[in-house]
Amino acid sequence: MIYITDKTWWQYVGKTLKYSLYVCVHPLDGFWDLTHEKRGSIAAANIIVCASVIIEVLRLTLTSFQFVRINMERFNAILVVMSVILPVFLWTLSNWSFTTLMDGKGTMKDIYMAVAYAMVPSVIINTIMIIISQVITFDEGAIYWFLAGFSVLWTGVLILAGMMMIHDYSLLKTILSSLLTIVGIGIILFIFVIFFSLVSDAVAFFISLYKEILFRVI
User: Fold this and answer.
1) 40-54: per-residue pLDDT in tens?
2) Distance CA 83, CA 85 (A)
3) Which positions fall inside the Yip1 domain (predicted)?
4) CB neighbours of 13 closer than 8 A, spacing ≥ 6?
């Protein structure tokens, strides 16, 4: 029996976390090895997602008001957290649902890791954006908005590369499956809204019924 000590585990997580930097600049080889050669880990993916949440909160609260204007009295950290975690969850679920039917080789675990590792550029660039927003003027804002756009583009390219490698798809099939994934996310959200509406109506009905019975008994 092989025992893994805490030190060994942390070294492993650190190694898989460091590997995310390689994935950013060598996406094709990186994502292939991420899953097929087991170079990634769920622990590292979780750390990246948590870092994305923290950086997003800091971006909204610490970025100069010239670029991000937010009413702190109405700031809801839970909504910010969900704005990061929910898209990751929905993409993972929707992509797995479609690629299972399209002979995709990636598991739900692989998809989640690929999406998480693809978020590394946004973590790095958003951190830079927070810092430079404090030292540049509004007239120099083109630098800020360029970085914002570049972050989205880089992350998007990495997600496509990740899906292509873990499912062993062609580029065309990757784009098609990604479009279907987006459609699937819309369907999931629609079903959730309908379900939430039905549950709300049911709860309201039973509360009303309870009050009516209580009123008649009293």
Assistant:
1) 899 999 999 999 999
2) 6
3) 24-192
4) 41, 43, 44, 47
